[in-house]
């Protein structure tokens, strides 16, 4: 998968939007049998780091003495995805609760009959509407939201200062308020100062932020692929790549070079979903200049985030459903945020003092809680993401990479994007 | 008396005949019985999946949704009409040649060195096997780090001697060469050990005779070792071919996306199969690619067989 980790998860998160809205009203909920009369073990399959600490899981055992929870962590979203599709096809072997990346949620939407309906009186209205929509398919809530990735801009204040640009978060936010052209124009100013660093990391990442601001970018609501005929796609492709010529470090996201570039000051700004903070702190631990501006070109955007599902093939689906419900409640998600920085998708969490007061030392004590609450509220558009989404996105991202690596011109690359998408047939 | 005798005579041959039959069966069928577990197992885990994949390839088949309509050879027609398929086939052969040829050449030299009277023989022999026991995934991760386009170790070293940075991830040949080094790193030592075993089976008399005739070490290597090693070499080449054409881990892990490069620079057939089956969830087309790959390997296998026969007949002619 192209953006295996969470790169484009943003996109996928809201995947089922259209269907979901139709679906909300009709989900029949059964009373969850939370307590088993016999001791049982529930397996919880997650990936990367969801922030579900052993202590958190043990506290559920205290509430329900008959239920023991075992967590299996896959290393990457990719590994979890392969595992999910292989075992879903086999009809057995999945965990009682399976974490699903918003990135590949749209693909699972087609198979909603293989999942338990998780709707209940408890979790109704718990998440922001677009998050609920992303986990709903054919009238069923198949995924309960865990985290989301509202986007801000992360920047290197030391590099901005070198270029004579303002460095205080509020000033940077003011500077970058506007559309993408404004973001690229500030980039030109930055590049003109010849600091040796680029303005943003890669065309691929920047394009992704832009693509997530359209309702129907690659596909129509019925799933028809319109990527090659939608003028917005071609326009975005050309404008990002034109800006990339002078403003990009040409380091494709998630490559080793990209991570090294972060530590070596190869670029001054990057699109910054909440979970990216951990990535930046991990990849450039010795850099002291990172800061966050509560702003995003052209409004708001979301990138990444996951769901919990209960596959119907499990033996203890009723107990698993109750557990998934508990684990995605605001209190538990805030605990996960404290452990791993996964920003809650639960609306009620946004008024919780633990979250509103959260700061991050690495980012010069930025008030990350309040910043990302504001950024989450700025997300207005729910992009439609259908079955072909990830394949189409891969084709377009490959096109961007071909130009950035210097192997093709923008025109040639676009021609190939069009033929690659047609080949998906 | 006579009657009794007659009766006994009547009965006896029948009893003897039965035990004889049993005995004959024992001789005739037992060997097949003893080797049958392998074939039964092969039928279950080898033949059945093979045929089932063929069945899948004739249908529209979703990875999870399962069997769809019967579409005949449409999946094959689609795959064969894709430029990507031919590119993947070309890449597969190119990576195979870039890896197999130097690999076997180096392995034979290493084996020849190990065949000498070294101190700490076992140490050296086990030493060459170490890369083989390292997980391919770990190898791929380390090497893809070395081959970073901008901050990779290889390019940094090249920079010190004034060679411009090589674009390991965008230049097709460079990327395939990088992948080939991973494959070679892993398999060279393994092949060297098999060749070493072959070398040790060569009668030392030949070498003594040659030495007496005044042949130097190089002459002895090319005139005795290499020709005598032919059966082992054929084995190594065939296994290297089958393995090389199915190469997956290394290209899959060569970059962060695992799709074979933005322009399919290092897309191999197995990787293409994976993309079709697990990313696009189109099992029908993936199965068609699997069968085409199978046919390619069979064809290469037949070529190998023909060469083997040729060599065998040459041996027959030899005095």
UniProtKB/TrEMBL annotation, chain A:
Top-rank lineage group of the source organism: Bacteria
UniProt keywords, alphabetically: Signal
Pfam family, one: SBP_bac_1
UniProt key word Signal: yes
Keyword Protein biosynthesis: no
Signal peptide: 1-33
Matching PROSITE patterns: PROKAR_LIPOPROTEIN
Family matches, as PANTHER family: ARABINOSE-BINDING PROTEIN-RELATED (PTHR43649), SUGAR BINDING SECRETED PROTEIN (PTHR43649:SF32)
Protein's name according to its UniProt entry: Carbohydrate ABC transporter substrate-binding protein
From TrEMBL, chain B:
Protein location: Cell membrane
Transmembrane stretches, start-end: 32-52, 93-114, 126-147, 177-197, 229-248, 288-312
GO cellular component entries: plasma membrane
Coiled coil (UniProt feature): none
Any one GO biological process: transmembrane transport
Entries under Pfam families matching the protein: BPD_transp_1 (PF00528)
Xref: CDD domains: TM_PBP2
UniProt domain ABC transmembrane type-1: residue ranges: 89-304
Membrane topology: Multi-pass membrane protein
SUPFAM superfamilies per the UniProt record, alphabetical: MetI-like
Major location (coarse): membrane
Keywords, sorted A to Z: Cell membrane, Membrane, Transmembrane, Transmembrane helix, Transport
Similarity comment: Belongs to the binding-protein-dependent transport system permease family.
Protein name: Sugar ABC transporter permease
């Amino acid at each position: 998968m192209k953006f295996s980790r969470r790169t484009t998860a943003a996109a996928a998160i809201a995947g089922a939007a259209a269907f979901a809205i139709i679906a909300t009203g009709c989900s029949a909920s059964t009373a969850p049998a939370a307590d088993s009369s016999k001791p049982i073990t529930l397996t919880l399959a997650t990936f990367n780091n969801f922030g579900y600490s052993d202590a958190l899981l043990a506290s559920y055992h205290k509430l329900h003495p008959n239920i023991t929870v075992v967590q299996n962590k896959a290393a990457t979203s990719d590994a979890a995805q392969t595992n999910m599709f292989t075992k879903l096809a086999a009809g057995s072997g999945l965990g009682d609760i399976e974490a699903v990346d918003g990135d590949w949620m749209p693909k699972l939407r087609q198979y909603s009959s293989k999942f338990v309906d998780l709707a209940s009186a408890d979790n109704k209205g718990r998440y922001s509407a677009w998050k609920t929509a992303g986990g709903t398919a054919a009238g069923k809530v198949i995924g309960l939201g865990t985290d989301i990735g509202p986007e801000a801009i992360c920047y290197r204040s030391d590099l901005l200062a070198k270029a004579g640009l303002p460095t205080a978060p509020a000033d940077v936010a003011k500077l970058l308020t506007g559309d993408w052209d404004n973001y690229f124009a500030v980039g030109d100013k930055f590049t003109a100062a010849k600091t040796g660093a680029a303005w943003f990391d890669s065309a691929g990442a920047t394009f992704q932020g832009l693509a997530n601001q359209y309702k129907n970018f690659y596909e129509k609501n019925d799933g028809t692929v319109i990527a090659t005929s939608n003028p917005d796609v071609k326009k975005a492709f050309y404008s990002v790549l034109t800006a990339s010529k002078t403003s990009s470090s040409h380091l494709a996201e998630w490559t080793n070079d990209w991570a090294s570039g972060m530590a070596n000051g190869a670029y001054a700004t990057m699109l910054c979903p909440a979970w990216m903070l951990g990535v930046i702190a991990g990849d450039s631990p010795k850099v002291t200049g990172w800061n966050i501006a509560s702003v995003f070109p052209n409004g708001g955007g979301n990138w990444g985030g996951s769901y919990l599902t209960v596959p119907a093939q499990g033996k203890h689906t009723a107990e698993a459903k109750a557990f998934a419900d508990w684990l995605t409640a605001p209190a538990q998600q805030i605990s996960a945020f404290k452990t791993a920085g996964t920003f809650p998708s639960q609306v009620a969490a946004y008024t919780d003092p633990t979250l509103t007061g959260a700061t991050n030392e690495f980012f010069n004590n930025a008030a990350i809680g309040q910043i990302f609450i504001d950024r989450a509220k700025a997300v207005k558009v729910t992009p439609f993401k259908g079955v072909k989404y990830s394949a189409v996105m891969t084709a377009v991202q490959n096109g961007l990479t071909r130009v950035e690596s210097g192997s093709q011109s923008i025109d040639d690359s676009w021609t190939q994007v069009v033929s690659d998408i047609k080949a998906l047939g | 008396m006579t009657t009794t005798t007659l009766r006994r005579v009547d009965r006896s041959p029948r009893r003897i005949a039965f035990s004889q039959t049993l005995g004959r069966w024992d001789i005739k069928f037992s060997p097949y019985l003893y080797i049958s577990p392998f074939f039964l197992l092969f039928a279950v885990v080898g033949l059945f999946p093979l045929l089932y994949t063929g069945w899948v390839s004739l249908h529209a088949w979703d990875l999870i949704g399962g069997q769809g309509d019967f579409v005949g050879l449409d999946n094959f027609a689609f795959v064969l009409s894709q430029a990507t398929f031919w590119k993947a086939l070309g890449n597969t052969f190119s990576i195979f040649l870039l890896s197999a040829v130097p690999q076997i050449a180096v392995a034979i030299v290493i084996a020849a060195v190990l065949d000498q009277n070294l101190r700490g023989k076992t140490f050296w022999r086990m030493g060459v096997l170490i890369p083989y026991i390292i997980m391919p995934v770990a190898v791929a991760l380390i090497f893809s780090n070395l081959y970073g386009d901008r901050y990779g170790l290889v390019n940094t070293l090249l920079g010190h001697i004034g060679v411009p940075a090589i674009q390991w991830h965008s230049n097709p040949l460079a990327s395939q060469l990088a992948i080939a080094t991973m494959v070679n790193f892993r398999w060279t030592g393994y092949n060297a050990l098999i060749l070493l075993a072959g070398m040790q089976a060569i009668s030392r008399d030949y070498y003594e005779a040659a030495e007496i005739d005044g042949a130097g070490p190089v002459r002895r290597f090319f005139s005795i070792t290499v020709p005598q090693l032919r059966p082992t070499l054929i084995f190594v080449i065939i296994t290297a071919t089958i393995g090389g054409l199915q190469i997956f881990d290394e290209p899959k892990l060569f970059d962060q996306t695992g799709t074979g490069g933005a322009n399919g620079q290092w897309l191999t057939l197995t990787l293409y199969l994976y993309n079709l089956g697990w990313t696009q969830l189109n099992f029908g087309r993936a199965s068609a690619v699997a069968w085409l790959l199978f046919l390619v390997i069979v064809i290469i296998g037949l070529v190998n067989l023909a060469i083997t026969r040729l060599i065998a007949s040459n041996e027959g002619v030899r005095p």
